[in-house]
Amino acid sequence: MDKIDAPIIEKVTYDGEVAGHLNDVIGGDSKKRQLLFDYPTVYLIYAANKNHSYEVYVGETNDIERRTQQHLNDDPRVRDDWKKMSQESDAHLLIIGHDHFNKSLTLDIENQMMLFMLGVPSVKRLNNRRENEQNDYYTSDEKEIIFSKIWRRLRALDNHLFPIEREIRDSAIFKASPFHKLTPEQERAKDVIIDKVIDSLMKDKTGQLILVEGEAGSGKTVLLSTIFYLLSHLDKSSVRLDTSNLKNYLLINHDEQFKVYRDIIHKLELDKRVRDTVSKPTHFINSHPEDAPKVDIVLIDEAHLLWTQGKQAYRGKNQLDDILNRSRVTIAVFDKKQILKTEEYLDSDQIRRMEERARKQNDLIMLTNQLRINAEPQTVHWIKNLIDKRVVTNIPSDKKYDLRVFDNALEMYNQIKVKAKNEESGLSRILATFDWKYNSKRKPKNGGNWMVTAGNLSLPWNLQLEAPKEVRKSKKKLPWAEQEQTIGEVGSTYTIQGFDLNYCGVIIGPSVKYRNGHIIFDSKMSENTNAVRNRTLRDGQKAQVADQLLPNELNVLLTRGVNGLYIYAVDEQLRKALLKAQQGLIGDNTTN
C-alpha cells in the first residue's frame, strides 16, 4: 500500500456570512483548495451548549460550498433543528479532505464518524440523513487508517469533543451502535427481517414473532440496534407504506443495557414519536392494555431475560406472550444458554414450541458466527467444552487470545489492573460466579461492603464503591464496567451480561467443582437465590433447575473477554485440573 498522507481539516465559523462565500473564507495552497472544493469531503457541523455538551451533524458531499448554503439557507425553513443550529453563536463547520477520498470512501468515513460520535459522552444530539455502509471498493482497505489519522487531527482541535479513540471503542454505546459495518450473516438477517416487517405491516398481520437466536458474542445486539434504527427511518416512498405514525418500541429486561439503549435512542432523537421508546417489559405490558390498539413493532434484546411467571408488578404468566398480544410484529433475540433466573426459566418443550411458532412462518433466524472472542476456533471450542460438556481439556496454543489460569487470585487481579491501565489493552475487569453474599438493599451487619473473598484476594461486590465526586453525576449514566472505580470491584452476571471486556478475569467460585474427571455444579455453595430456589413448573410441581441455570451463569462470565480470559478457581481440584490443562498435562477425556 502506498504511503497514506495526513488529512486536510479546515475549521470555520458556521453562520450566515459563510453561505456562498466559503471559497473566499478558506485560504491555503492550491492542493488544499483542490481537496476541499474539487474532491468529495466529509464534514461536521457542531455547537457547544452551556454545560459543555454538543449537538453534532455529520455529512458528506461532492460540493461543500453548495451543501453549506443549503444547510444555512434552505434547511432552517423546513426543520427546527437546522433553524436552531443556524442561530447558535458558537457553531462551527469542520471540513475534512483527503487525496484518497472518493464517493464510496467518504460515505464510509461519514458512517464511521457517526459510529464514533455516538460514543462521545459530551455529544447529546447526533444527526445524519442516511445510513451509508458501503460494500468493498478500491480504497476500502484504507478506511481505518485514514479515519484514525482524521480522528487524531480532530482531537488536536478539540480533545473534549474528540476523546481518545480507544476510550470510545471500549464504550458500551459504541459496541451497541447501529452504525457498525455488519457481517454478511448479519446483513442477510437484517434484510430478511426488514422485508418481513414491511410485508407484515402491509398485510396488517398481528402477533407475528420473528425469533433471532445466537450464542453469546454472535452479534445479536448490533443487529437489533441496526434494525431499530432502520425501522425508525423507513421511507414511505420506498416501501409503499405510511410510516409517519409507526409506533416502535425497544424492550430490555436488564438495568445496565437499558441505560445504553436509552442513551442511543436519545442521542439519535429516535424517541420523538413515541413516549418510553426504550422500556422495561413490565412497564410496556402494564402501559398497553391488551384491548388497546396494538403497537406496530416491538424489538426485544436479551429475550431470554423475559419472565415466564408473575413477579412484582407483573401479574401475567409469560411476558413474551403478553408482548405478542400487544404488537403487530415482535422481533426477539434469544439465547437459551443465557437464561439465569428461575423466573426466566423455559423447559425444552417451551423453547421448542416458541421456535416452532417462528419456524412455521419462516421467521426463525440463526446467527452462528462468533464475533466477540478474538481467538482461534480451538480456543472457543475449549471454553464450550468446559461449559457444555463439563470437561477440562488441554488449553490450546493461541497467539491471538490470552487464555491463562492462575494459582493466585491476587496475582490475577493485579494483571487485570495492569491491563486496565494500559491504553492499548483497554477495558478490563474482574468477574465472579454469584457464590458470595450480596444484598443491594442493605449493608452487611458489620456496616462494610459485601465482599468476594477468593484465596488471598478480597474485593467488594459490584455497585458499592462510590465514583469520584467530580464525575459522580455523569458516571451514573454509564454501565458498570465503564465506571473507573469498578476496577476495585467484582462484577457479576447482573452487571456484565450483554457487554464485553477486552480482558476478563473470572473467579470461579465454590459452586463449580471438579470431581471424577468432570465439572459439577453444587447449588448449596451458590448465593444466587434467583438460580437455586425452586421453580413452579407448568403442572404445578416445584422443581430444582439450578443444574441448568448455574452453567448458564458460568457461560455468561467466560464469554465476556474479547482478547483475553484469566481464570482462578476456588475449588482446589478444579484449580489443579485447570493448571494441568494450561501445562498440557490432561489425559484424553472424550470431548467430541
Automatic annotation (TrEMBL):
<dbReference type="InterPro" id="IPR018647">
    <property type="entry name" value="SLFN_3-like_DNA/RNA_helicase"/>
</dbReference>
<dbReference type="InterPro" id="IPR027417">
    <property type="entry name" value="P-loop_NTPase"/>
</dbReference>
<dbReference type="InterPro" id="IPR003593">
    <property type="entry name" value="AAA+_ATPase"/>
</dbReference>
<protein>
    <recommendedName>
        <fullName>GIY-YIG domain-containing protein</fullName>
    </recommendedName>
</protein>
<dbReference type="Pfam" id="PF01541">
    <property type="entry name" value="GIY-YIG"/>
</dbReference>
<dbReference type="InterPro" id="IPR000305">
    <property type="entry name" value="GIY-YIG_endonuc"/>
</dbReference>
<dbReference type="Pfam" id="PF09848">
    <property type="entry name" value="SLFN-g3_helicase"/>
</dbReference>
<feature type="domain" description="GIY-YIG">
    <location>
        <begin position="38"/>
        <end position="128"/>
    </location>
</feature>
